[in-house]
Predict the 3D structure of the following.
Amino acid sequence: MKNSSKVAEGFTLIELLVVIATIAILAALLLVGVSSAKAKAQRTVCVSNLRQISLGVRMYSDDSHDASPSAGAAGLPMAKAFQSLYSGYKALMKNYVGLRGASSPQDKLFACPADVFNVGGLVGDKAHAGQFVKKSLHDSSDFDYSSYAFNGGDNVPRKITGGKHTFTLLGLAGVKLSDVKHPDRTILLAEFPALYPYSWHDPSSHGVAYLNGAVCLDSKNVVSFVDGHVSYIKMYCAYRVTACLTNPPAGYDYQWTPD
């Protein structure tokens, strides 16, 4: 009787490379799916936050003879006016959403979970002004610990300190909300990046354009409107001009001004 033996068979090099490549493709697809699901979940939180905050703003307005929740900025320079007009609303209306006492990073209703990077100059990192850094606006007292801004421009022309250009901050400061002519198009509240614009939710939509100070079109942000609805929309930005200083042309679904 003859002894029989079998030669162990294994993968060839080509077969092994094909398997590795297939696993890499599947892993990449899985990561894309997980990233997309995470971004969608973060947007859902932001939509919910802005609905609740917008309701609080309307309740404040109802109790304040229809006034908008603007802290005012008479006589303030551009930088201070910007902080007062766009961040000052929270102190006026936060009790309408159940918050008491001093603002803090624990005010989760005012925190967007995607608020994990921002432009250096906005968060006090002047060394990286115009560049993106890993810092949250919600952790900053300069923004009253909020990821969200009130459309608080007071339509007053202002000149940047030391600069030659004059800018008008478009918005709803000093405006009765019932006087807004297009409540379904006029922004009430927005994620702060909508004012510049860049995007927490879709960073690929701004790429390096913002870093170069060039055209930064169609970055997408979550915003609420005077009529109460909330949308995830693209923002218009003219060349080297912050988004909230310019009403967009046709093709965009919003405006900053009340008329």
